[in-house]
Amino acid sequence: MPTTRPQIDDGFWFAFSKQWIEESTTRGDEAAQRMATLLVWLWGVYTAAIAVGAALTEYDYPLLVTVLLVAPVPMLILAYACATWAMQPRRSKFDPRMPSQIREAWSAKVRATALRLTLSMGLTFIAALLVSTALVAASVVDAKATGPELNAVAEIEGKSTRLAIGGRFPPRTIVLLVVTPTVEPEATSEPVIARYLTNSEGALSQTMTLGGHVEKVIVEARWNDPQNKGVGHAFSREFTFQLAD
After folding, report:
1. How many C-alpha atoms does 82 have within 13 Å on its Cβ side?
2. Total domains, the chain
3. Are residues 208 and 134 in the same domain?
4. Which residues span the domain enclosing 157?
């Protein structure tokens, strides 16, 4: 009766070890490449979220949240550098006539690649955690909206003064501007009252013409709270101009 030779014997494991050694370097490089691709994707998610958040909101975040928002940047850079480092060839020195030296050089290369890849994986995990934490913190934190802004520039036009007023208030809000000019010599004129609607970003940019040569104006802005129409706000600034005839 013929004997059946086992399929998994020493020859099988010898062949498997040969294939394993030949493919180990390729596997390490492929793993590092996938890690670098993941990091590029994480960087895209992070920068897109931060850019959209900065464009749609105008908040003053607490210091801790600000630190969390910028913390992923150096970690992502380090993790990507390590992933790239893992793909770089390692310089080895051995005698090609000595199998033991070749084996040792190959083993050292495998260990170095594994160490670099492990470091990259650890940094990638930390970077992903920081990105997630930053996005969650920015979305749930009780951030304070930035305060209103007012600016004014004046220019003489004949016997009158052209006043340009710019500012930032809640988006799509009616702002009542009360402009009280002081015309030379130190004579306060009647206030000029006008209503303006801010744009979708809360910006206000308007011009008006005032009689005489205005040396100083007090600009007061009044508006209702967008969330609670029963709550009113007021903000004023005084501007002094040095106008040449």
Report:
1. 23
2. 2
3. no
4. 147-240
Q: Are 171 and 148 in contact (CB under 8 A)?
A: no
Measured distance CA(127)–CA(84) in Å, rounded: 16
- Per-residue pLDDT tens digits for 5-46: 656 666 666 676 667 666 666 777 787 788 888 888 888 877
Q: CB of 210 within 8 A of CB of 189?
A: yes
Which DSSP category does 63 fall into?
H
pTM: 0.47
Say yes or no to pLDDT of 96 above 70.
no
Return the axis-axis angle of helices 99-140 and 72-87, rounded to nearest 10°: 160
The burial class, CB within 10 Å (0-12 / 13-18 / 19+), for 201 is: exposed
Residue 176 burial class via C-beta count within 10 angstroms: exposed 0-12, middle 13-18, buried 19 and up: middle
**203-211 β-sheet, strand order:** 149-157, 160-168, 203-211
My answer on whether 85 and 136 are in the same domain is: yes
Domain boundary among 144, 173, 200: 144
Q: Is residue 116 part of a domain?
A: yes
In a domain, 5, yes or no: no
